[in-house]
Design goal:
The structure holds 3 protein chains of 3 kinds. Chain A is of the alpha/beta class. Chain A contains 10 helices and 10 strands. Helices cover 38% and strands 25% of the residues of chain A. Chain A has a 6-stranded mixed β-sheet with strand order 6-7-8-3-9-10, sandwiched between helices. Chain A is globular and about 55 Å long. By secondary structure, chain B is mainly alpha-helical. Chain B has 14 helices and no strands. Chain C has one domain. Chain C is globular, with a radius of gyration of 19 Å. The chains are: A alpha/beta, B mainly alpha, C mainly alpha. Chains in contact: A-B, A-C, B-C. Chains B and C meet through helix 5, helix 10 and helix 12 of B and helix 4, helix 9 and helix 11 of C.
Amino acid sequence: MKTLIEAEGVCKSFGGLQALDTCSLSVPRGSIVGLIGPNGSGKTTLFNVMTGYERPTAGEIRFDGAPITGATPERVFGLGVGRTFQITRLFFRLTVLENILVATQRHEGWLRSVARRAGSAAEHNRALEMLEFVGLDQLANSPAGNLSYGQRKLLELASLLVADPAVLLLDEPTAGVNPVLIEQLSERIRELNRAGKTFLVVEHNMEFVMGLCHEVTVLHQGRTLVTGTPEEVRANPAVLDAYLGGGDDDDL
Amino acid sequence: MTARLTVRALLVAIAIVILGVFPLVFSNPTTTSIAVFTVIYMVAASSWNMFSGYSGYIALGHAVFFGVGAYALTLLANHLGFAAGWGIFALVPVAGIIAGLIAIPTGLIALRARRHTFVVITIAFMFIFQLAASNFAFTGGSSGLQPPTPLWSATSYNDHFYYVAAVILVATVALSWLVRRSRFGLQLFAIRDDEERARGLGVRVGRVKLSAFVLSAIPIGMVGGVYAYFLGQIFPQFAFDPLFDLSIALMAFIGGLGTVWGPLLGALVLESLQQYFTVQSGASQVYLIIYGGLFLAVILLLPRGVIPSVEDLIRRWRTRGATQDRSRGEGDGGRRADVVKAAGAR
Amino acid sequence: MSASSLAKAVIDGILTGGVYALMAAGLTLIFGVMDIINIAQGALIVLGAYMSYVLSVHLGIDLFVGLIITIPAFFVLGVFIEWAFMRRLRDQERTAMSILVTYAVAIIIEGILSVIFGVDFVQLQASYINSSFHLLGFYLPYIYVFGFLLAVVLLGVLYYILYRTHFGRGVRGSLQNRSAAELIGVNVNRVRALSVGIGVSVTAAGGMVFGATNSFNPSSGYDLISRLLSIVILGGLGSIGGALVAAVFMVTLEDVVAVVWSPVWATLVYYASLIVVLSFMPNGLFGRAAIRAQ
């Protein structure tokens, strides 16, 4: 299956507001796809629909060819789709290590999960490996609430990675992050991509997107405007129109 | 095992010993009666905390399980012709299980809702059960029911109930501790902190919440049965009492919501206080003001409850200067840190 | 059971429901703006009843006239409660904490009332309480009708404040979307304090009517708050219109069931109706659907 995850003809409305209007998007296996568009174009809503947090009013979501429209977020994650949030979400009162361990909980019988300690030795090892990968292993026992902004984003990412998802949906991973960290983030994503992971990234930081993504899709008013390579999209006049006409934006 | 753990184990052992010899030392029936009620509330607060404290879903309807346990034991004892005496205590676990079974449909309905709505649904269920008990013939209507009365001597009468309740207490605390450090417990805490995100990380929140809800109903059902047998009489208003719900929530909260020992401390303090004031009639309504005032003081000054705040203080004093901290609210992270160090020795 | 007794039950339900609607509107307003469930609302109603009691028995002031004193007094009380207790609640566990905090306030109020007035039941008295309108073959007690009219007037005032004033716009904005309201410069602290003030001031009026139509004692708050919470949830948290519809619906349903089936089951049906409605509409009749992620 060439396309790993895709949205087809997705519509979603909230009361009177039409957030997505026959929106289609496909993410080829092993690629890094960027999703850009002015504020309010529906990017986060599309994420929510793709990961089961919202039900579309029409349309379909497919993962590896099989429909997953309306599946619960738990199930979507179990299939191998992980996602981050625009405003970094963590379990702030748990420690950094515990945050990672939540994602490693294998689905086993109820009785065993009460009797067994949270995190076997193997899971602890894997969790620590992941923390090392993002450079947070020294803070394993600190409450997640104590982390700096950039560290939180890394932890959020690490929590997903520990479950070895096939595709990651990242919602504005560089927002509010300093340039050095952005570069590190870029490198990590490339590394993971070389190892076989697929990415769909919502971003406003154009440099980041253009430098990282194989393919870019532009969303405008809930619809797919243009899809193509970063250069093609950059040169497309319709895209510029959408940004200037539709909403504010920075560094285009 | 670190020194810290040995100290803890020792404290637990001492607590169990105290629990065991209490009625032998303070054998005055008035005192042991207070002790029975206190232990019952310690179980209830601890059990409630296993669901509400760990998951963050404040349930104010667990009186349903208390009442169901009370009625179940009484009905079974009467209809199955149990002779008054030790035999009836065998029905206590059955009462607990029946309460657990009731928790399944009520939990399924209530847990579909968001947190705010959930609270109110649990309250509604409590009233529904209370009114049902008042209106059905088989539950004795508003006059209630009476279980058989055992013929134990007046001096040692209370002790029988005390020891049964104490055994239930030890089992409940053990369960609470086990859950807290388990995978199941971790998922509950994740739900507490950010349920939607927990879903996104694969936690089967529906299943986990319902399991915790049902689990928390069982010990409460059991002490409900003990309560009915101890009083020798149950009425709908006492069996299904909104004050019960509010009391156990308060107790768990004052001691430290989400901790293992917090609810016990809270129950110990508040129930003894309440019983003391009940005995001293005349000041009976003043205790409400003290209750409420105490509660507000704790919320505003020690918002996480007594035990976590005390632990924080101890920790801060111990690690003056260093930036170490634990945040599940209580210090069980100690053991985990050791495992981490052992596993992550690189 | 006859058509006329059924009709009477419906009329009683609507009249009483209107008063409950007023008290529930206060509760849902507080929740909508503050994300706080004010468990003390029941105790405050009882307090309002006792205030009217003191004014009428000890100072000879008429029940309705006394509201001129109690409503503003309760408004101030509400502002104080918000400032003293609610403001400190951290956002993270706001709702759970608010339940516990307001419960503490409720039991303190109950305790104080018990100490001052004792636990005996009392009821507000006035010349018109035992008389009725004779209309179309129905006897409508004066107090029920006046109480209903009072509720209508106050709800009308509430409507005016919410929909015709600048402040009201801020409140509605906060009800719909708190962060957006903050962003456009609504003075959130002021809106919150005044909203709680309004939400509590209606309990003075509701308390008076409640006290005139029921005997009460300091512990009467539990039953009241349970009923109000059910109304607010059924109507949809934060929706004042929903509280209105829900109040009239549930109270009327209960009165009708009492006549048609049996009074003994009526209250159970009241609470069961909440469960039934929520099974089909988990957010209540007019509640906002929860947006899952952000």
